[in-house]
Amino acid sequence: MAYADQQMSSSKIVSIGLVVLIHVLLGYALVTGLAYNAVKKVASELDMIDIQEEEPPEEPEEPPPPPPDQPIEPPPVVTPPPIVTPPAAPRPVIQQQPVAPPPPPPVVVAPPPPPPPPPPQRANPEPRGNPGRWANANDYPSRALREEREGTTRFRLTVNAKGRVDNCQITGSSGHADLDQAACKNLTRRARFRPSLDAAGNPTTGTYSNAVRWQIPK
């Protein structure tokens, strides 16, 4: 028994050593590119690992060459249809409209001021009040009244710029001197006027003409 155990231990050690050797050889074969031959050689010696060698793939059979008397026809050449490129669309013409400048602001022209009114003009003096009260029947001279004398005295008064009488001139006598004198006396004392105005509107001297009718009241 001891001999048998010792023989089995020696075989086991040998097997382990062989396995380790195989691994080392495999590693070496992987590094050096000789893994296939090393594994095959080790397997044949040990006769322990059955490695089936892969058969190389069968190469495809080459087609038989055409008979020498038949010419090889070239494949028909198909001309591709021409590529028709559509004409490019014309580019739109962009017309820029000129921008009209803004209209100028309206010019406001102020109307000319109205002309000043013409200065008032008065060629002749104008009476103030009723001229019939300047000489009336109450002014009748007593002698002419007693003698019942009547008549019409025509006169022309010179009126100054203040509207007062500066002069009295008889232009038509009544036929009685006392009646004419009474007329100028009362007219000079009582008559008041708006004076005449020149072209500039300033008061000036003017004349006024009228008549006094002397008549005894009934």
Task: List key phrases describing it.
218 residues, alpha+beta, three-stranded antiparallel sheet, two-stranded antiparallel ribbon, 7 strands, 16% strand, rod-shaped, disordered N terminus
Q: Which helices and strands, and how do they pair?
A:
Layout: H1 2-32, H2 35-46, E1 126-127, H3 142-146, E2 151-159, E3 165-172, H4 177-190, E4 193-194, E5 196-197, E6 203-204, E7 206-214
Antiparallel strand pairs: 1-4, 2-3, 2-7, 5-6
Helix pairs in contact: 1-2
General description of the model:
The structure is a single chain. This protein is 28% helix and 16% strand. The chain is of the alpha+beta class. The chain has a three-stranded antiparallel sheet with strand order 3-2-7, covered by helices on one side. A hairpin with a 5-residue loop joins strand 2 (151-159) and strand 3 (165-172). Helix 1 (2-32) packs antiparallel against helix 2.
Estimated structural class: alpha+beta
Write out the strand line-up for the largest beta sheet, numbering strands in chain order.
Answer: 3-2-7
Task: Measure the end-to-end span.
Answer: 215 Å
Radius of gyration, whole Å: 82 Å
Strand tally? 7
Task: Characterize the quaternary organization of these chains.
Answer: single chain
Helix content: 25-40%
Largest sheet: 3 strands, antiparallel
Distinct helical segment count: 4
Brief description of this entry?
The protein is an alpha+beta fold and 218 residues long. The protein has helices spanning 2-32, 35-46, 142-146, 177-190, and strands spanning 126-127, 151-159, 165-172, 193-194, 196-197, 203-204, 206-214. It has 4 helices and 7 strands.
